[in-house]
Amino acid sequence: MAIAKYNVTTDNRLANLIWVDGSSRVDYQYFGDVLAFDSTYRKNKYKRPIVIFSGSNNHKQTTIFGFGLLHDESLASYRWMLENLMEIMCRKKPSVVVTDGDKAMIKAVSEVLPESMHLLCAWHVEKNVTSNVQDDDLRGLFIRWLYVDMTTDVFKSEWEQAAEDYGLCQKRWWCQMYEKKEMRASAYLRDKFCAGYRTTSRCEGINAYVIKFSKFSHTILELVQCLDMVAREYRNKEMLL
């Protein structure tokens, strides 16, 4: 059975919306150990963040668990979205949550799912690095830290050397990236089950499907219909592979 939940603003306008169909609810009960939570997509008439909940099935294929439309990117909106997702999914909590790294989202995950391990999606980390790092060699180091198996001692040594070589010790962005090292660096995740979300292709693939079906002119109803088509396409792909 499909379920939708929403709340409204003080002037009785739609605030947050979440919807999950019956197949997605069943899939989550089987494959919801790892939950990816992406809200970086805004291609709709109202320029509001679209939330995509996804995971990986037993064939290592991407599975859509549900969608949401955020009123804003506040802690309250993210918390509402996660709390209602858990209610829809019969309170089954994931072991691992993968997000794009938004500060309010990180806080919401820590409050609603305090026992879940929180990781950053490698695709979003790569995009962040690309927009903040101009030097090709330094970019290469970040890619190495993301994916290459190494000990934490080796990671720390290389990080400190890079900070000295590139004069980054006092850079705010550099310090922020180090603070999140346990959520993204391979050295800290080598023994963790991430259901394929340590690679970039999974989140990138979902975004490509949304781009394929959605338009900037879409109303909320058209957007919901479009995202339902995305979920059906993913299921059709599961049957063909």
Order of helices and strands: EEHEEEHEHEHHHHHHHH
Question: What's the gyration radius in Å?
Answer: 19 Å
Number of strands: 7
Largest sheet: 7 strands, mixed
What is the typical, i.e. mean, pLDDT?
Answer: 89
What is the number of domains? 2
Estimated helix fraction: 40-55%
Structural class: alpha/beta
Q: What ranges have pLDDT less than 50 throughout 5 or more consecutive residues?
A: none
- Under the CATH scheme, the architecture of the largest domain is 2-Layer Sandwich
Biggest sheet strand line-up: 1-2-5-4-3-6-7
Classify the beta-strand content into a percent band. 15-25%
Distance between the termini: 26 Å
Oligomeric nature of the chains: single chain
Judging from the principal axes of the Cα atoms, what is the shape? globular
> What would you give as the CATH superfamily of the largest domain?
Ribonuclease H-like superfamily/Ribonuclease H
Q: How many helical stretches?
A: 11
Quick overview of this protein structure:
Pfam families: MULE. The protein is of the alpha/beta class and 241 residues long.
Helix and strand arrangement:
Elements: E1 3-8, E2 14-20, H1 22-31, E3 34-41, E4 50-56, E5 62-69, H2 75-88, E6 96-99, H3 103-112, E7 117-120, H4 122-132, H5 136-147, H6 152-165, H7 172-179, H8 181-184, H9 186-189, H10 201-213, H11 220-240
Parallel strand pairs: 3-6, 6-7
Antiparallel strand pairs: 1-2, 2-5, 3-4, 4-5
Question: What do you see in this structure?
Answer:
This protein has 241 residues and is an alpha/beta fold. It has 2 domains: 3-121 and 199-240, Nucleotidyltransferase, domain 5, CATH 3.30.420.10; 124-189, no CATH class. Helices cover 50% and strands 18% of the residues. It has 11 helices and 7 strands. The protein has helices at 22-31, 75-88, 103-112, 122-132, 136-147, 152-165, 172-179, 181-184, 186-189, 201-213, 220-240, and strands at residues 3-8, 14-20, 34-41, 50-56, 62-69, 96-99, 117-120. Strands 1-2-5-4-3-6-7 form a 7-stranded mixed beta sheet, sandwiched between helices. A hairpin with a 5-residue loop joins strand 1 and strand 2. Helix 2 (75-88) packs across helix 3 (103-112) and helix 4 packs antiparallel against helix 5. The longest helix is centred in the C-terminal third of the chain and has 21 residues, at 220-240. The radius of gyration is 19 Å and the shape is globular. The two termini are 26 Å apart. The model has no long low-confidence stretch (mean pLDDT 89).
